Amino acid sequence: MNHRILYPFADFGDAVVVQPGREAVRNAPRHPESDRDGDDALVTYFELARVMERASRRFSGLLRTELTKLGVDDIGSAQAMVLLAIGDAELSVGELLDRGHYVGSNVSYYLKQLADGDYIDRIASQRDKRSARIRLSEKGKQLCKSLREAAKSYERALSHGEQDRRNLETAFQTLHRLEMVWGSAARYGI
Amino acid sequence: MNHRILYPFADFGDAVVVQPGREAVRNAPRHPESDRDGDDALVTYFELARVMERASRRFSGLLRTELTKLGVDDIGSAQAMVLLAIGDAELSVGELLDRGHYVGSNVSYYLKQLADGDYIDRIASQRDKRSARIRLSEKGKQLCKSLREAAKSYERALSHGEQDRRNLETAFQTLHRLEMVWGSAARYGI
DNA sequence: GAATTTACTTCAAAACTTGAAGTAAATTTC
DNA sequence: GAAATTTACTTCAAGTTTTGAAGTAAATTC
After folding, report:
1. What digits encode the pLDDT tens for the residues A31-43?
2. How far B29 CA lies from chain A's nearest CA (Å)?
3. What are the CA-CA distances from residue A13 to residues A21, A38, A121, B85, B99 (Å)?
């Protein structure tokens, strides 16, 4: 898998094509440089949102498959994501909330299942008895490890070289930025 | 399933992600150069998946808000996304399925609601009576237009220099690539 | 022309998400 | 120092979305 992201999005099927898509066949590489100012940016945020959705769906699928392979059937991909979000840290629910930008009741729901399945330990904080501290149990760590292990084989399938890594980084940063902007937009209007 | 290789898989958890105590503080992109050889990339795919999830959630939130503002209450953000996915095209359900990598029954469900709300027209194909052709109705187009309109104001909130555009493009390409790899991984194992 | 395949739909059961309300501990206020 | 408020969650009861296993009817293949 070569890839230095040729700029004008060479080879991906429905890649950058924007709404106007005459559907189905869209190989003719439209050229960026031309329509620069009109309504349609090359890649609109809608498209980015859509590709995120699709990719996320795929990722969950993979996770689910992996879980099944590992014989885990008491938690789903969403819970596994929470597990991965916790990582090595020991944190309070609130911190986890921040970390994943989840909704409170949502995380409670996940944590309950994770606790029921013994994937995490909850320790009541000494200083503040309202606040539970959370961390992965041995079982949880093991699962995370297996998942990461499994992920590596996928990673090998695409991350090759400096350029790819940089792209990954860029993607991450960009999404992170979007996340923030969209988040504050939601909170403060505009 | 209990191997007991306790690994100090130290630095995975949240590699690049800022420990987001307060969202405000975002360190400048940490720079790669150093830890290059191990198998932990700076940004792992898990993290990318997580940020995608979060950003998607935010985006749906925005969409939902926008819909509410527009007085639309018979469809949700997911349905709106389908609308946007259809765009200007007239396509069959199967093509739409491809386009969004949705699951069949899922799209059926959405389309039903969209049809009930008169956001789309279904035309039975003449050549193949099994296949329904789908396109936005006037009302649907109108809604998409409004949504895109609204999106523009958000777009303005992100600076729109050349660099940003490139980053957006890179992000898009990267995700698209992931989508494909993860997709085929799901289908053909590994 | 029977069997199979394609292109969807439907249904019911999960899974997930939300918002409002609740609880109990900590903090502030008076 | 007790009442009021706030924080840090959890629970509950709706929703909404997603899945998977049928189903249906038209097109294809044999």
Report:
1. 333 333 444 456 7
2. 8
3. 12, 23, 46, 15, 10
